[in-house]
Amino acid sequence: MAKTLVLLNARAGAIIDAGAERVCDALASSLKDRSEDVEIRLVRPGSLRDEIERAAQSEISTLIVGGGDGSVNAAVHALGGTSKTLGVLPFGTMNLFARDLGMPANIEEAIEAIGDARPRKVDLARVNGRSFHSLSGLGFFSEMARAREEVRGHKLGRLFGVGLAALRALQRTYPFTLDIRTDSRREQVEALAVLITNNRFGPDWRRPSLDESVLEVHIAEHAGALSKLKASANLLTGTWRNDDDTDGIRTITARHVAIGRRRPRTFAATDGELRRERIPLRYEIRPGALTVLSL
Fold first, then answer.
1. 14 near 69, Cβ under 8 Å?
2. What is the mean pLDDT of the chain?
3. Model confidence over 36-45: pLDDT tens digits?
4. How does residue 163 score in pLDDT terms, banded at 50, 70 and 90?
5. How does pLDDT run across 85-113, given as a tens digit for each residue?
6. Cis (ω within 30 of 0) for the bond into 45?
7. Whole-prediction pTM value?
8. CATH of segment(s) 3-116
9. Where are the domains of the chain?
10. The 3-state secondary structure of the chain, one letter per residue
């Protein structure tokens, strides 16, 4: 008998605002025609990753996760390469993966849509053996992730918090030297930021395809203080694809990427989660590694 398990971050703002009981009832109604057996659990944020790992080892056929990109990152790592299907409810801040799957940002619309979504195969990327769904960044991006944790829940609101985090990240970002190897080239660069994406991102942080089976490496090269400001603004807003003047940001396409530094470890922000990774960082694409519910 097909079984669907729904794990919801109980502290997600969207759930608190809508009301947990109301959300669970709406989900049960939306999913009743999809699966013969549906279980819905509200989980504390600190326990969500463990619950996802247990679900991956269970007999369920479909796991639906309601949370942010970090929670979904744990799910794609656990379910990648298995026969299980992942559904995503966009209950976080950025929700990059959910948006690319066509999920509405509005919670009521997303709950209704998940009942109509259909399974499809998509690519995953991997860094040092750990899968991710969207992107992994160094330099400015790792500093941004660090600063966002520091200002999370700021009393003046989320938008002010994001602006404050960006300012702190900009102040802490300094040029660093990297050795970058791809399928066909090797080069040494002095950069302010490096972003590795699972498939190609277009303007406004949207991917036209989730199964193109390529990595893109975006390098914001160091060329002075003004370049630092422009590149950081373009990277944050995702507008570098729109502008003929890319302000020192260039792109390499590959299937395998290795990044070296003159230190044994470095911080990388992967799907919004800050992790200390071993050097060299080894990135690869995993074609069709995950089955997801998509509109």
1. no
2. 88
3. 899 999 999 9
4. low
5. 999 999 988 899 999 999 999 999 999 99
6. no
7. 0.90
8. 3.40.50.10330
9. 3-116, 135-288
10. CCEEEEEEECCCHHHHHHCHHHHHHHHHHHHCCCCCEEEEEEECHHHHHHHHHHHHCCCCCEEEEEECHHHHHHHHHHHCCCCCEEEEEECCCCCHHHHHCCCCCCHHHHHHHHCCCEEEEEEEEEECCEEECCEEEEEHHHHHHHHHHHHCCCCCCHHHHHHHHHHHHHHHCCCEEEEEECCCCEEEEEEEEEEEEECCCEHHHECCCCCCCCEEEEEEECCCHHHHHHHHHHHHHCCCCCCCCCCCEEEEEECEEEEECCCCEEEEEECCEEEEEECCEEEEEEEEEEEEEEC
What is the pLDDT at residue 220?
85
Structural fold of domain 135-288: Tumour Suppressor Smad4 (2.60.200)
